[in-house]
């Protein structure tokens, strides 16, 4: 048995996998977000560590696993002291407190320099602007910190005592993707040159690997091998078998995580998203993790008095095009980060009249999120196969919308816990344990596009791009942001 642990923004999961990749058991624990101020989102580190211990013990059921693989949410700022204890609550990637800093960096060229160096465009929830925000507001906090790490790295430190990160988490924004080492120029550009000692060492090859030292926390035998990483985006790609250049993975989760495999480490001409190192030499992930996703849909469902379980029925009640209702699904207080960066981005509906039904509003936002996925994939250089995973993909009606918007078959990843599956495959690779990847990463079904709907959605996508472009000009004008070329790449409406 192998155990994979996936620490998400709202839930922590532990999954036991058999030797052939079958999900044998799943345990969950809530991962709570705390909001101490408007636009501020934080985690209690001790609460998360205790949750990991509970789910690991529950899913193992007294059996000693061969290894434990950990993955988790990325970005944010997780500050710990020399013993690995938090010096303040962890700041989530959803946090908006650094939005003014990002706007300043976009205006003065800092964001462009960071992108040129690391291939990633900063956004309010990234580590660099959050470090800068804490340095301005809480300098004493940084002086007490020994490490500015990431979620999985904090848990790894508590379980094994190892202070390290892997190439995927280190990629944004401090790593040079060509050398796979930290770039001091990024720190200097962000005004953080004096804080380089806070960055944990980047483990070589297959990431951090160490024996479990705190067996009491998890009820697992001390000495059990524990692997840290990759973080949730690359872990999901690994677990879904998305490894060939041009192939893509869409995760329809709290956010819409779109990734395309590339053999080119240099940033392309779309200054947005992330360029993530992987554990495979010569392969990177061009990631466009948009802030839209099931969080936007859940908000609309709540506004119309519906539940996620009602989604299939609501989609059946409204035709393609939602009777003329369209949406921009930018609900996050932090704005948008891919395939463009706009801290001031906000959502809207258009085309509403007295005949508009709750089903029309729900379908409009589902279609808008699918348009956002196509926007992200095209910006990332997609030209191959598409695999889908995440909670949103389990609703056939919504998956069918994605397939028709993309005009390509949508392959559903095996099992519900793709991130945990990737974490276990990472642990197996770190241990030199050969896995049958064809079996572990086989897809389970295919959602084919409807030809008539696909033609309709081509026109709808062109309309969506026009609305986004117009909205960006308005957001900039309203918030005094300069007109920049960040993410202004004009995309073709023809499919790859």
Automatic annotation (TrEMBL):
Note down the stretches annotated as region Disordered: 475-496
Does the record's keyword annotation contain Kinase?
yes
The Carbohydrate kinase FGGY N-terminal domain sits at 1-239
The protein's GO terms of the molecular function aspect are: kinase activity
What are the entry keywords?
Answer: Kinase, Transferase
Q: Where is the Carbohydrate kinase FGGY C-terminal domain?
A: 249-430
Statement: the UniProt record of this protein carries the keyword Transferase: yes
Please list the residue ranges that the record marks as compositionally biased, kind Polar residues: 481-496
Q: Which Pfam families match?
A: FGGY_C, FGGY_N
InterPro entries from the UniProt entry: ATPase_NBD, Carb_kinase_FGGY, FGGY_C, FGGY_Carb_Kinase, FGGY_N
- In terms of superkingdom, the source organism counts as Bacteria
The record's similarity note reads: Belongs to the FGGY kinase family.
Name of the protein this chain belongs to: FGGY family carbohydrate kinase
Q: Which organism is it from?
A: Nocardiopsis mangrovi
